[in-house]
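Q: Can I borrow your eye for a moment on a structure tokenisation matter? Would you mind producing a protein record, from residues through to fold? Write it directly below this note and I will take it from there.
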Amino acid sequence: MLALVGWGVAYGGVSVTAQNWMAAAAPQHRETASALLAGVFNAAIALGALGGGFVVDGVGSTAVLVFAAVLALGAFVTVAVGRSPTRRARVGA
């Protein structure tokens, strides 16, 4: 139950956080950034479904949970060590 609640909170925060990052990264092109975000978000869902389908077909349905946990951990590490949009290098400095 705790994992389910954690997943729901994290998933709910993904779209809001990603939208804020995109707006900070491209403040002059918010509409373009929003369109890019929608495309990437939908592609990620499609690739996740495809990958999950391959795992179910190849290994079994219980392996999908391990596959998802590994991907979630990789995403967490990437975000944790990644560079923040507010710490961008100054041009000409």
Q: What stands out?
A: Residues 39-82 form one domain. The CA atoms of residues 35 and 41 lie 10 Å apart. Residues 30-58 form the longest helix (29 residues).
